[in-house]
Structures are given as structure tokens and as C-alpha cells.
Amino acid sequence: MRVTGTGHASMRIDTAAGSILCDPWVNPAYFASWFPFPDNSRLDWEALGDVDYLYVSHLHRDHFDAAHLKRYVSKKATVLLPEFPTSEMEDEFRELGFTKFLKTRNEEVVELDGGLKIMIQALTSPTDGPIGDSSLWVEYDGVRLLNQNDARPTDLSTFAELGHVHAHLLQFSGAIWYPMVYELPSAAKTAFGKQKRDRQFDRTWRYIDDLKADHVFPIAGPPCFLDDELWQFNDIFGDEGNIFPDQSVFLSEYAKVGGTNGIVLLPGSVTEVTTTGATTTHPVPVEEFFANKVAHLEEMRERKRPIIEAEKASWRHPEVDVLKELKRRVEPLLDESIYLAKGVGGPVRFDLVGYDGESIESIVVDFPGKQVRPYADEKVRYRFRTERALVEHLLHIGEVDWVNSLFLSCRFSAARIGQYNEFVYAFFKCLSTERLQYAEGWYDEHERAVDAEDITLGDWVVQRRCPHLKADLSRFGIVDGDQLTCQLHGWRFDLPSGRCLTSVGHKVRAHRVGEDVAVAQAAPPAS
Ligand code: FES
After folding, report:
1. What does pTM read for this prediction?
2. Ligand 1 midpoint to CA 446 (Å)
3. What local confidence, expressed as pLDDT, does residue 523 receive?
């Protein structure tokens, strides 16, 4: 089996029974903020796009690059579709001209022509990707590959049960706006960033250890930031709180925990994987490439500047009355929302900075009051500050997912009272009835699900499944004193009270070993 690195989360898999192109991403995403790193725009995409199968893991724009798919990927390719709850992905592919689809069933192995086998695991919580994320497992002639991508299943047993895996490709770097955009003192920002960076690596080691594949490939990030306004997010300043470590950092951190089987794929690198080994050729030596990272980024920045400028020029739509349009689009959704609105539990304020860079219009999405209105000098749950032009553009194009556009762009700053609130972001990625209804239904089911099984962790008896996304705490849970941390996403819980310290809601059931359960439940919450 041959794996060709094509940048970021993208690769082409070639076997004698057919080829699969995965997640080809070349054009900048999220308001021209993210670019693939290393640059992959000079690959021979005409040849790479001439494939038998196309797999896109999810609809995030650094995976689903509509312009590139339309221009470069053969419409004769059969699209391997994950089993997602909505038809959005298929609809988008059809709009681009694709007509051949293989609708996979979740976690079911499919044998394609010539003995090529695939299996796709679809994750479907509203917090997975835009509205779902997935991983692709491939087997041919005894060689097995898992393209885990940036999906975060609770464990990898579904894949491990299909036999020993030879190549495991997974995310290790950051792909979010936290903590950089938060209005925090820089020491706090660095501390939170460092915590996040460590957690990303811990999670990666855990997955690698789960599968014990012969070869491990760090993929799906980091992106690079070429706009001058965002340049500081590149991990080139020796900032230990930067959440975007690159593949060379992965190799050195992996070595510290004893990892010796890491393989970096640059765009154009080719690895031949067999059941007994792997040989890789690179377009340039990997060490030399990363030693020249800053020069590579600077050269890219100059070359891509016209693209960024052209995008920026397209964002302004002065004819859009933002307050009126937001009311028209968001208020019906607030009326429909039960779980998300209750979960947000307070007003969310948007400060929109005008074209002059100074005037500000403050608008509140009032979740308890179910309305969109001017800010009224009140306490708010979250405050976002961004350019008015960006919101004009979102309204102009009818964007239903502000996470997959505004928030991932990092072109905003944020402040909040209290803990992280996942419902805020879940709501703003569901600005259509179809998405909102799905998310509401999911939370409804999730809330009702009674997870009765308990496990013992140190001195504590806790529910087996994490209240966040049901990770098995016997594997992901770490108890330190009175605190439980679930390592899958790093959420922390105060065990005496059960209170989640990371996000609103999500209480965990817990009591001390030997303690009367009724006494534990009657204990007052920690302050
Ligand atoms: S499943 Fe996300 S923190 Fe536990």
C-alpha cells in the first residue's frame, strides 16, 4: 500500500485495487486565516485528483475544500460517505458535480472491487466536527491503515478488532481558537496554552498506545497563518503556550515518551507500507525542511498575500442591516431551542467593529429572553468582538455554521464569565432548523441516557462514562486528590460535589469508596 502525503490531513492511498484521495485541502479556509502547512499548492493536483475513490472526513473547510474538489478531483470518483445524521455532505458533493456515492454504514466493513476493504466510523455528536466527524480504515493485501484524522473516538477498539494496524495517521496539534483569542493577561494565556499543548500530546500518546500500529504518522495540522494580523499564531517564536506545534516537534516529544516509529509526511512524501515495514522518500530532507520553517512561511506569506487581500475585499456588505438580519434568522431558532438555549443560560454579546476600526455596534443574542436586540448595559455570559464586515459576510452568504467560519478564523477576541460553555458554540454551528433539531434531539437523548455503571478510581467510585462525550473513565480518567480529569478532552470534575470545573452542567456521579451514597449525594456543593 502506498501513502502519498498531500498536506495537512490529506493523503492519497494507492493499492493495486484502486486509489483513495482523502481530504484534499489547498485553498485558505476560515476567512483566509488558515493555510495548509507545509505548502501543498504546487503538487500535481491534476494527477492526484485522478482517483477511483474520494473520502472527505467531515465538512470543516480545512478538509472539505469545495473549490479544489470542483476543479481538481475526477467526477468519476466514487465518494465514500460517512453515515452522518444529515445529508449536508452529500448535498454539497452533488452541487460540485459528483454523482457516484457509496453510502457506508457506521463501522461496517465494505469490500470494494479487487479486494480493497474500507470501513468508516462516523462520530455524530453535535460537538464532533461541524455536524459529524469520521475516520477511515483501509485494508488491502494484508496491510491495514487507519486514517483517524482529527476524529476523537472514545477508543480505537473498533479498528483494533479488525486486526493489527500497520499505519496509523492521526492529529496531534491544535485546531481551535483557545486560548489565543481570549482577553487574558499574557501569563495566564501562556499557562492555558501550555496546558492545552500538553493535553493534545497526552491524548495522542493514548491513541497511539491504544492501537499499537507499526508506524505512526502525525497529520491534520497544524495550519499556518499568513495574514499579518494572525502571524503570531505560528509556532515560530519559542512560545511554550502555542497550541500549534508542528510535525518536527511531534517527533521530538514522541521520542521523549519512547516513540521510535513516527514518520512525517511532507507534501509529496511517499511511504510504501507492507506487513513487515515501511520505506519513505521525501521531496526534501525532513530535518532540513523544518530547520528552514521560518523562511518557508515568509516566502509563502509573500506569495499568498494577493489571495488574502482579494478575500478581504469581498467581506464588506454595507447594505446588510446586521441587527435586523440577525433577528430574522436567529430568533426563530431561539424559539425552537430548548436544550441549547437552556445550556447557554444567559445573553451573548457581539461587539461589531465598524469599517473605521473604532465605532462599535453591540448586539445581544438573549437566550433566556429568546430575542436578538441591542445591548442594554447588562451582564453577559460571553462577549465576542469582531469586525462588522465578517458578520455582514456571514449573513450575506447565509452561513449556518459560525464555528466553521468565524470562530475557526481566530479573527475575534472573546471574554466570558465563568466556565467554558459548549452550548454557545453548539448553537452557533446550528443556525438552520435541520442542524438545530438534530442537536436538540441529541442532547435530549444524551440527558435521558442513564449511565448506571460505576467504576473505582483511586479512593473514588465514579460513573464509568464521562459526562462530556462518554469516554470510558476507566481508561481516560485520572484522579488527583479530589479532582477527576478525563484525558480525552481534558475536562475536570470536583469529585465531592460532582461539579464540572471545565464547562457548565455535566455533573459527574461520584462518592468515596466505602461512603454511603445517600450521604455523598446530600453533601453541599463545593464553593
Ligand atoms: S469525553 Fe470529553 S472530557 Fe471526557
Report:
1. 0.87
2. 14
3. 35
